[in-house]
Amino acid sequence: MTTEAAPTNRERAERGQTSTLIGIGANIALVLGKGTAGVVGHSYALIAEAIESGTDIFSSLIVWFGLRTAAREPDENHPYGHGKAEPLAAIAVAFALVCAAAYIATEGILHILTPHQLPAPFTLAVLAVVIAIKETLYRRVNKVGEEVDSNAVKADAWHHRADVITSCTAFMGISIALIGGKGWEAADDWAALVACCFIVYNAYHIFRPAFGEIMDEAPEGTWTEDVRALAEAVPGVVATEKCFVRKMGFEYFADLHVMVNGDISVREGHDIAGAVKAAIMQAKPAVYNVLVHIEPST
């Protein structure tokens, strides 16, 4: 019976880049479609949607570049690799979302204060198509993000989910304006303001885990417990003392103190340390390196 080899970091980065490029292509089409429909149909909510899709293109390019950089091999100036480029890309995406929300909110307030026409009914059909496309993209890209364990790809997915949310609020705003008739023209502008709140929330949702990774925060899940268990299962290991795990891009680094019999030779201790490192890296292919410090148990 053969088992499929775990994908390499480069392969995971390439999968992330491919999903990002698909999203960029979809967003280019959506910017043109939503922007045109918003102008012709007198809907600022749709124009706001087009603006957000425009920032999606910019931020997706950042994600693509971050993934490409993170996949590069370590060099003399970056002995630990280039993995930090991946969470940095996610943080850049979060800031791009905040900037887009600020711009949309400013323009939305100006439209509320300025009399304008009711939005055209066909804008609802445009939004329905946008919601279907964006939800499909979110599910596809988020699945890739989970599979390759990339905060940047997950951030790119949340961009698509943010579009779904804002499109739903725009749909409701335009519907209210059309049902209410004259005097309710600003309903879709208010919908754009509500959408800004969701955009900022999503920006925080993206920023928080990426910032934690930059700060070498312990990864979610049972990584530390798993590394301890793998080390303690190695013959000659009495116990583990300190154990730290951190994520850097697509890779994980583990540092731990292993306790062994204090009467064995330096060479025997060195061999045990090597066995611990090999056991962890074999069981956890995403672990790039393990630093083992040997301590006497007595």
From TrEMBL:
Residues 224-296 form the Cation efflux protein cytoplasmic domain. Residues 21-215 form the Cation efflux protein transmembrane domain. GO terms for molecular function: monoatomic cation transmembrane transporter activity. It is a multi-pass membrane protein. InterPro entries: Cation_efflux, Cation_efflux_CTD, Cation_efflux_CTD_sf, Cation_efflux_TM, Cation_efflux_TMD_sf, CDF_Transporter. The chain crosses the membrane at residues 21-40, 46-67, 88-106, 118-137, 164-184, 190-207. Keywords: Membrane, Transmembrane, Transmembrane helix, Transport. Its main location: membrane. SUPFAM superfamilies: Cation efflux protein cytoplasmic domain-like, Cation efflux protein transmembrane domain-like. The keyword NAD does not apply. GO terms for cellular component: membrane. It is found in: Membrane. PANTHER family: MITOCHONDRIAL METAL TRANSPORTER 1-RELATED. Belongs to the cation diffusion facilitator (CDF) transporter (TC 2.A.4) family. This is Cation diffusion facilitator family transporter. It comes from Hymenobacter chitinivorans DSM 11115. The lineage of its organism: Bacteria, Pseudomonadati, Bacteroidota, Cytophagia, Cytophagales.
